[in-house]
Amino acid sequence: MDLVSIRDLEKKDIESILDRAEKISKGDNKSEKVGLKGKILATLFFEPSTRTKLSFQSAALRAGMGYLDFDPEMSSLKKGETFTDTIKVISGYADVLAIRHPKEGSARLAADISDKPVINCGDGANQHPTQTLIDLFVMKKNKGRLANLNVTLMGDLKHARTMRSLLYGLAMFGAKVTLVAPSSLEMDKDYAQEVEAKFKVKFEEQKEPNLAKTDVLYMCRIQQERFADPYEATKTVGKYKIGKEDLKKAKEGMIILNPLPKLNEIDKEVDELEEAKYFEQAHCGPVVRQAVLEYVLRA
To answer: ∠ CA 148-151-156 to the nearest 5 degrees?
Structure first.
């Protein structure tokens, strides 16, 4: 069973994964019941990663699995071996493949090629389904619900695969989503409208966040490299960031999430505040990804 896109999951599937992650977080680590013990995970990361890669490896070890860490810089890719042949070969060495690649559609291609389950850990600006599962897990853990939760997605919504996957997941669970992005970096309108139609919801668009009405502020960085004018880039980054003073206007109990790494979108002084939950978010990675490993290997 593959997990290439958040679209591959029904609501009941997500609920099952989140429930299992909650049990794992409380010490229920009986993964041998679904046959993880002794299995092998291959992590194939063609782009840099800290949290996703290490949390998958951590999850594997916690569940009694081993892992193979594929390094493209030290592989036969340097000799001209194709992506297709690489996937075919490594599929014979492992029981499940976790893949990150800069090209959209690469994970789906790998899933078509491999006879072992493939988990998409990010394919270009397309999808990052396991990050969405972590995000939903943390929101539910901190706020007690997902339905009718007021969630503001803020930053570069055009290029952030995290935001695309999360928008779909939030709509599925009936959250109220507000999109806040600079001009030219808004969420793809066709995609947003498709999700609205599927789940019969309506997303609100604003140029500035209304923190007084926000339960969850989810931020991602403004990618300055996307701007032709360096001055405009600096100006935009300064506008789409959160500092300690901004939080004086925030709704009581609001939490701040970020997929990390964070650069300049959140002031460092915010890190120590009660609202900051992004390090907790990262620390939930292993338990959620262990639940994902159980899910894809269950069949």
So the answer is: 150
